[in-house]
Specification:
The chain is an alpha/beta fold and about 525 residues long. It contains 15 helices and 17 strands. A hairpin with a 5-residue loop joins β10 and β11. The longest helix has about 35 residues.
């Protein structure tokens, strides 16, 4: 027996360490055995190809990430499977002691075409069981050739694949841990945001909380009356003279800020609400010869159309435009609107892929021939077998009553400087939900946050680092409804500014004293009338 207090403490420490090692070893053995057993699990219309605990891990080279080695801080069971011979999905399950008891479904962007591995890795590191899919096809990030002759793949991409992967994931969680997830969440931005809204609308029982960022809500209108229309607004202006080269964007952005930055009372290079900005591109028309720091008359006319949004030949609105203040930045107009050369911008690439593959199923289709008076209605009414194309892929149904009734909570955010998806499309959807069910009902389960200075999902001049998942969890699990969330601007690894993000329609308003780089000096208030 130990003869001193120190010896007794030492003995206890050794005993605890030995027990810990034994528990860890037995836990790891349990995980390996339980994981391998999942490969034999029978799930409807599903083939499970892999169920293993990987040693180290490489993302496959995909649209979502460069190939890189990932070393999770904890072990996990990786399950790969295929649903109905089309939809590839993966479920990542942390070891029993590391699981937080929750499931997180993750969405992809663009046309998807691969499993969103980075989002799976982030969810795993936070302790979630995680699931993601390729939405029913394995192809390029911007093309839709896979849709030609395959209406079932379009329906998968539109809504079925996300639901079906969720059903399988819950079954695998139950089999692995011996109990279902206590709470289930879905997170995604861009196309992933559309996936989340579609879940709330069509499959309200899948998730308790949904986080939808910069969603491609009305995909048919976004791609035609949004992306394609904006490109043709430049190319059809004065026989193509309306094209605005990337070199002019820097000067355009500077003039917008010169006119509008102080409208919110703070000079910070960010427009709190770009709708208040009345910048007229005609002010930049060159007095003499054409230069990078001025616009030609056709270029000014084209930019005015980009801000105003799409309209048919009779002037009736078709889709919102893009906001002033979002022109500059790596994810701004140079990428989406101007591109490296005419017909090289992301808007044109996305529109071309959609029209040739999903809409018209014609690889030789020429997008410049699109008729906005006729063709939008034509493709939206296209039959897919039991539903139209618009019904299958547009997440615009304002009826969220079933999601609300089961206690679901939705946080929806959108960057005001988004040049990929018009910010006002999110406001339009939110207002349609309010109009259908009333403001009080919407306030009980739905929050929209407009993020000043955020471009498409990432980057931009504003405070663009934020966490909406934690507030969503508190709302779902504790009933604490979020009214404001603090966002940060990080430069060279340091926080240089914090700002509150306010539940729409409220906006951040400076108190009039204190640093404008500190969120504590801002109030969330209704915008001026």
């Amino acid at each position: 027996m130990p003869r001193s207090a120190n010896a007794l403490r030492t003995a206890r420490i050794l005993l605890i360490a030995a027990a810990s090692l034994l528990w860890t070893a037995s836990g790891h053995a349990w995980a390996q055995s339980r994981c391998a057993d999942l490969a034999t699990l029978r799930l409807k219309d599903t083939t499970l190809s892999t169920a293993e605990i990987p040693r180290g891990f490489h993302y496959p080279n995909s649209a979502f990430a460069m190939e890189e080695r990932v070393t999770p801080s904890r072990g996990f069971c990786r399950i790969q499977g295929v649903i109905e011979g089309r939809t590839r999905f993966e479920v990542w399950l942390p070891e029993r002691a590391a699981w937080n008891g929750r499931l997180q479904g993750v969405g992809g962007g663009g046309m998807a075409g691969d499993v969103p591995f980075p989002a799976l890795a982030l969810a795993l590191e936070a302790g979630f069981a995680a699931v993601g899919s390729d939405l029913g096809h394995h192809s390029g990030f911007t093309d839709a050739d896979w849709a030609i002759g395959h209406p079932e793949r379009v329906r998968d991409w539109g809504h079925r694949a996300t639901h079906e992967m969720t059903v399988r994931a819950k079954a695998l969680v139950q089999a692995y841990y011996g109990r279902p997830p206590r709470w289930s969440y879905f997170t995604g931005c861009s196309g992933g945001g559309r996936q989340g809204l579609m879940e709330a609308q069509r499959y309200p029982g899948d998730y308790d909380g949904i986080l939808a960022g910069d969603p491609t809500i009305n995909f048919t209108r976004l791609t035609t009356a949004g992306r394609l229309w904006m490109q043709l607004a430049m190319f059809r202006e004065a026989g193509g003279a309306g094209y605005v080269p990337a070199a002019k964007i820097t000067h355009l952005a500077a003039r917008v800020l010169q006119d509008c930055d102080l409208l919110d009372g703070v000079a910070d290079g960010v427009l709190e609400d770009p709708r208040r900005c009345r910048f007229d591109p005609a002010r930049m028309i060159c007095a003499g010869s054409d230069r990078d720091d001025c616009l030609t008359t056709p270029q000014a006319a084209a930019i005015r159309k980009v801000y105003a949004g799409a309209a048919d030949s009779k002037g009736r609105p078709l889709f919102p435009g893009y906001e002033p203040g979002g022109e500059l930045g790596p994810n701004g107009w140079r990428t989406y609107l101007s591109g490296p050369a005419p017909f090289g911008a992301m808007q044109w690439v996305y529109a071309t892929g959609f029209l040739r593959g999903m809409a018209f199923e014609d690889r030789a289709y020429e997008p410049s021939t699109f008729d906005f008076d006729r063709d939008i209605a034509r493709i939206e009414a296209k039959e897919l077998g039991g539903e139209t194309l618009a019904q299958a892929i547009n997440a615009i149904d304002p009826d969220l009553s079933a999601f609300r009734a089961r206690g679901g909570k939705l946080i929806h955010y959108h960057g005001w400087s988004d040049a990929g998806v018009a910010p006002r499309s999110s406001i339009a959807y939110y207002e349609s939900v309010v109009a259908r069910g009333g403001q009080a009902a919407a306030d009980g389960f739905y929050r929209l946050f407009m993020v000043p200075g955020l471009q498409h999902c990432i980057g931009g001049p504003g405070a663009t680092s934020f966490d909406f998942l934690a507030p969503l969890q508190m709302w779902v699990e504790q009933g604490r409804r979020p009214e404001r969330v603090t966002a940060s601007r990080i430069e060279d690894g340091k926080v240089v500014r914090t700002r509150p993000l306010c539940a729409y329609p409220k906006q951040a308003v400076w108190r009039g004293s204190g640093s404008t780089d500190q969120a504590a000096n801002f109030l969330c208030k209704a915008p001026p009338s």
